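Q: Please design a sequence for this.
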């Protein structure tokens, strides 16, 4: 925040500030979600999580799979700065929904698999740096692997990265070829 803006905000009355904050929340649903999260605290975030999971599901299950829309829904959620378990839950959910799409439509195109793998690898890297959460997400990750498609070596990739997480060889500095690097996930 610039010092000029900070100075102007500090001179507003309580009523003026409330009006501006509420107006800001009306501009975009994401603004309202952010404000709601700040006011409720991070513990009461279930409606927001459901909203973004629904956006991801709608993007991936649309008439034409919309990877960009799904990724944007995730990035919008990430901008809310959720606690780590909630961020991991959203990342794993993204991949789980992708696996549902794979199972519904069969063999898909390489970019789809790359998108799922990118999010999956990003989640595993977060888990590597936060080992207490591995046990919490282990059943879901194993289910992702078991339900994933064979196309484009997808299942093998998921399995290989999971094994690297478990044996400690997953390298945080490793460069992904997928969207994760590009999006800063």
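A: Design:
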């Amino acid at each position: 925040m610039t010092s000029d803006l900070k100075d102007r905000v500090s001179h507003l009355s309580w009523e003026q500030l409330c009006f501006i904050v509420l107006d800001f929340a009306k501009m975009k649903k994401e603004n309202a979600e952010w404000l709601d999260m700040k006011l409720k605290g991070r513990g009461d975030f279930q409606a927001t999580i459901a909203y973004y999971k629904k956006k991801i599901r709608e993007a991936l299950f649309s008439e034409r799979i919309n990877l960009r829309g799904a990724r944007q829904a995730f990035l919008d959620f990430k901008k809310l700065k959720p606690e780590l378990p909630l961020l991991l839950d959203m990342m794993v959910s993204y991949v789980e929904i992708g696996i549902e799409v794979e199972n519904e439509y069969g063999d898909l195109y390489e970019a789809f698999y790359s998108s799922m793998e990118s999010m999956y690898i990003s989640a595993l890297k977060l888990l590597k740096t936060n080992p207490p959460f591995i046990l919490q997400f282990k059943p879901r990750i194993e289910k992702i692997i078991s339900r994933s498609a064979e196309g484009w070596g997808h299942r093998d990739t998921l399995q290989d990265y999971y094994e690297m997480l478990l044996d400690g060889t997953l390298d945080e500095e490793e460069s992904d070829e997928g969207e994760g690097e590009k999006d800063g996930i």
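Q: Thanks. Anything notable?
A: Residues 175-184 have pLDDT under 50 and may be disordered. The chain is about 75% helix and 0% strand.
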